[in-house]
Amino acid sequence: MARASLRNNILEAGQKVMFRKGYTGSGVREIMAEASAPQGSFTNHFRSKEAFALEVLDLYFDHVKALVSQALDDKSCSPRLRLRHYLDCITERLEKDDFARGCLIGDFSLEAASQSEMLRERLSAIFKEWRASFAASIAEAQAAGEIITTFAPDDLADFLLASWEGAILRMKVERTAEPLERFKRIAFATVFKEP
Which residues form the HTH tetR-type domain (predicted)? Predict the structure, then answer.
């Protein structure tokens, strides 16, 4: 009988540790302890810490894409309201972690993009893919007359993601939802306002 692979356990443990300690502060020893796996298992599954971090990032982005799809594909409400629902859903999830944990994509962008060209390139591709989902909903909202058409959907989606990530960083410092709520109040009263 073949032994079960520890690969997924190690990736999930790595995500937890990297949320707590960041890319640089996360050591293989701590990741393996979190996974309750022998130290040697890491090199059996991953070429390097950098390659491992890339897979952790992809695992996290798969989760984010599922949340985006759940909110933005909900045709029971208007496109503008779907955008708001996504932000509210993320706010609730961050509150459950007492606002101590943010977004791994944003965290890696701050810390790892300057240290690893491979991670920087992947983060760039992630932002483009992420932006496309929001741009499609924004375009739909503009076509329905729910959002002003002053700016192109791609530009508004970039603004949304960049500003939201900034609000999440402030949230982690202040340990309160106020930076997130402030972003939503201002964004939906200005660039995402109804015509």
Answer: 4-64
